[in-house]
Amino acid sequence: MLDTASFVDVKSVEKTYFTPSGVVHALGPISFSFDRGQTVGIVGPSGCGKSTMLKVLAGLEDRTRGEITVQSRNVNGPLDDVGVVFQKDLLLDWRTVLENVLLPAELRGRVDEKIRTRARNLLEELGVSGFENNQPWELSGGMRQRVSIARALLLKPSMLFLDEPFSALDALTRDKMNVIVQRLQMHEEVTTFFITHSIAEAVFLSDRVIVMSDRPGRIIDDIEVGIPKPRTLSVREEPEFIDITRRIRIHFEKAGVL
């Protein structure tokens, strides 16, 4: 049974950039919290601060104002117990697939047979078994992203951050990745923070969907997705799914985004 105590708290967080051309108020103020084991999807217009929110939450960028706590600890720098997957897979083409997955353990001096077995098991779960000795440049875009997800999960992080990881994939591959990631997220019981431009993708993968306004990004809706998991792609035809996607789309239509 997962601990459902509050896991992440974000209070009145803002991010402002000071550039040569002027001040850019990119984010906030925003406040929200979510529980251990949840998948939280973030949708919003381009440039609304979604990726900034992720980087601030992960401690990869400093916030200008506000407080962030993870497991009751203040976030004042990069979190060391998270896995991050970006839109670009960032694999090292001179290393094999298995060597790429093992990189986080190698950097911490933790490569042993147990870690190697976990790396192979993750690749198998993600459908990349048999390609351990291939170079990343030999793989399709979807397979490269699977490898990057395996790498992010190798050390069993408490949180997984996904920043539009499927945006460059074709529709069929993207659907397949949605199903794979949902299954893996449930198996790993990892708290997941997921950014996407796809409303349907956010609803399919998430327990909650946070809807953001245009810049400076603020939260304009926070929607519980009560559809039981695991979900199949056919769930997108069900009334509850359609109602949630319509609710989100209306926000963007009112803002003139759609």
TrEMBL record:
InterPro entries: AAA+_ATPase (IPR003593), ABC_transporter-like_ATP-bd (IPR003439), ABC_transporter-like_CS (IPR017871), ABC_transporter_ATP-bind (IPR050166), P-loop_NTPase (IPR027417)
Keyword line: ATP-binding, Nucleotide-binding, Transport
Matches recorded under CDD domains: ABC_NrtD_SsuB_transporters
Record GO terms (molecular function): ATP binding; ATP hydrolysis activity
Keyword tRNA-binding in record: no
Domain ABC transporter: 8-239
Similarity comment text for this entry: Belongs to the ABC transporter superfamily.
Name of the protein in its database record: NitT/TauT family transport system ATP-binding protein
Lineage: Bacteria, Pseudomonadati, Pseudomonadota, Alphaproteobacteria, Rhodobacterales
